[in-house]
Design a protein that fits this description.
heterodimer, A: 490 residues, alpha+beta, 42% helix, flat, B: 199 residues, mainly alpha, 9 helices, globular
Amino acid sequence: MTRPKLNEQEIERKLRSASAPHPPSHLLDRLKADIPERMMFSSPALERRPQRLWRNSWAVAASVLALAGMSYVVVRTMESAGVTESAPFAARTAAEAPAPDAAPAAAPPAPMMDRSERAVDAAVESQRAPQAKSFDRARAERPGATPAAAKQASRPVQSLAAESLRGEPVAGAVAGGALADTGPPPPVAEAITVTSAAPAAPPPPPAATPPGRVQTAEASGAYAAPQSQARIARKVEAKSGGGGAFVEAAADPSSTFGLRVGGDSWAAVRAALLRDRLPEGGGIREEEIINHFDYGDEADRGRVSVAAEGAPAPFGGARQYVMRIAVSSGAGRPASGALGYVRFNPDVVESYRLVGYERAAGAAEGARVDLPPNHRLTVLYELRLAASPAGQKVATVHLEYTDAAKRNMVVTTDLSRSGFASTWAAASPSLRLASLAGKWAELLKGSPFARGVQPREIMARVQQLSGDFAGDTEVADFVALTAATVRLME
Amino acid sequence: VTSIVRFPSAAVSRGQEDPPQDESDLVQAVLRGDRDAAERLVEITYGTIYASLYKLCGDGDLASDLTQETYRRAWAALGGFGGRSKFSTWLYRIAYTTFLNHVRRPARVVAMDEKTEKTTADDSAPADELLEAREESEALRRAVIGLPEELRLTVTAHFWGGLDVAEIARMESITGAGVRKRLRKAFALLAVALDEELT
């Protein structure tokens, strides 16, 4: 069935009736909190003041010059007239006159005016510079700062230049007060290309960033990913050391994760340990070890479910946390073209790291896959959190897929700071098992992220945890394997 | 030369001024360092800015972030606001530019074709009518975003930003007739785009 083409009135009606939800309740508070304590304005009054001082300085200097000149002329006239008595007078004048008054006779007036200007400039500058810096810093560091704002303050010159070269509006120009209400509009592209929303459409941009990895283009500053040079260097270094590096959420708040993992790592690790040998580190895939276990996540028939939980990490610093994402599909027709990604809140998450998935660089993660029925997946992230109010959102997990009716669907779930377990012991058994499995895999692999972790500590924690998985032979096997690890590594 | 205003200004803290209500009065008060005026200015404008950004990006969380970014830029640029246009017009332009800047950054871009249809893991399937309405609304958003720049700005400023024809004409330095001509051209393009999307 074809519908008649919309006419002008119908288009206008649709545009007028486009609805938007009410702003979230916290937004107004965020906006009010963002009002700077100090604002910098171009002030005509202040602009006039130095000019007046400048004029005054010239007037004073000219007067002094004229006075000195007159004195000089008088003295020379008296000398040339042969008034010998004038010599003592001249000497006395020179001796008694205050030095600053005498100096202008020999020196041009400019230095004196320069001092006046410099005094004004210094006064203004001493007032302005720290405030300008503190304003930028406040924008960058304020809790609740969006990534764009935080990055803008630390944006290197190179990235601004790169944007300018591409003809894109440079946000810094706005921050600098260059956006006038009647000025020319900022350069904008002719049009933004809109691609089809067909199920086979390429994945959205988060997919372009392999999880836990650094885009080469970003590191080279080829596009606007504002970062300090030091940060870029760290990320390049992290990249060269393999995947799974911590990524600063302010620089890259989105991370995709693979929805399919292999399964041969566990068997290889187990076989090696049972032969009293440490497995080859290169063959160990953390995500496969983690997903060897059944965490009991379920989804209803024909549906896809996403859940997230978090807790303080068992290893690492006080601000280190673990987050488990559970994806499961129910029985029935599979979901096709599925893509999973997390969007972290940079106000709360300083940095994040996807555990594992190194092999899949540029391949599995970010690519849409078909989820088989009864598919279960656990994805583990390590997070470094900033001190933040309990209610703040830490991350939103998205899972896009096309359902059996060919509709494009997105399942999202939020994980807030208050949704985190207060202690490791209070975390769910599934989260504890997943994070121990991941850390054990990293330990066997010789990963730098397991540096300082004692095999004995992992064994003890797994033994303790096994009580929650009574009857689970795989967990019992895990206990035995961690014991073997202790024997071989200590 | 830059002046620095710290809130609250001495005059305001002594209660020498009546609280302004009009938008332009509020701006003047903010320029004098009246923090209450700044808050009031936010209160009376943020709903429209959020709504226009939501209609542009189709995502509530993102619209909130962009709204926050818009006001930060506005405070930073307020010294350059000469009062020759309405504050809300000026603010809308910042919001619009903020949106464009956002979607053009590859690392943080929200794709124009990103689905905004959301379910929760525990919800039952949405009603067909709701889905259809969402699809229509999303199709309209995509069609508007796909317009050439000057038409897109004109349409979004007028219908989603709440700016009248005269304000847009002033902002764009064209005549009112020019604005209406742009709108008619946009309607024709949108009709074609929606026809392709929805049939």
